[in-house]
């Protein structure tokens, strides 16, 4: 819902994300490294979206929201937070290691999604990525979806019960703010700068 998917896309993404999570747990018990777990999960998410479009369950424009929703569970949010905490605390080596882990995780996601797109090409499917709606209802829906996503992420990361409401409110506010900025409610400063400002610049040489 946050990226513009309809009810069918939401249902397919939910089922796909649950399947990815369960499959990851099964493979983890067998000692499969995390990189390959992420790759397989992203591949499953993208292939499910492609097959759903192929059988007519989804519109081609809903494939991208389904993939995005299904791979949320694979995003290294905890690793990013830990890397930032270590960097702030002065543990530079540990922070660098965590950042490298995040990069490998991102590479695995890109590779898995690329595999799904390769399957789509083999099936002669052209998947489109449509922009989300801009009506007031769309903005409100995305804000509420962001709050639910933030709340679910907090629960998945074993957050405290007292933190759930502030996390949900923060998710709604962040979505609202980003939507306003993306739709240029507050115009960005002109670039390049006006001639009056450029004339004051002093460049070496």
What does this structure look like?
The chain has 205 residues and is mostly helical. It has two domains: 1-130, no CATH class; 133-190, no CATH class. It is 68% helix and 0% strand. It is built from eight helices and no strands. The protein has helices at residues 7-29, 34-54, 63-70, 77-89, 92-122, 136-156, 164-182, 195-198. α2 (34-54) runs antiparallel to α3 (63-70), α2 (34-54) packs parallel to α5 and α4 packs antiparallel against α5. It is globular and about 50 Å long.
Question: What labels describe this entry?
Answer:
single chain, 205 residues, mainly alpha, 68% helix, disordered C terminus
Gist?
The chain has 205 residues and is mostly helical. The chain folds into two domains: 1-130, no CATH class; 133-190, no CATH class.
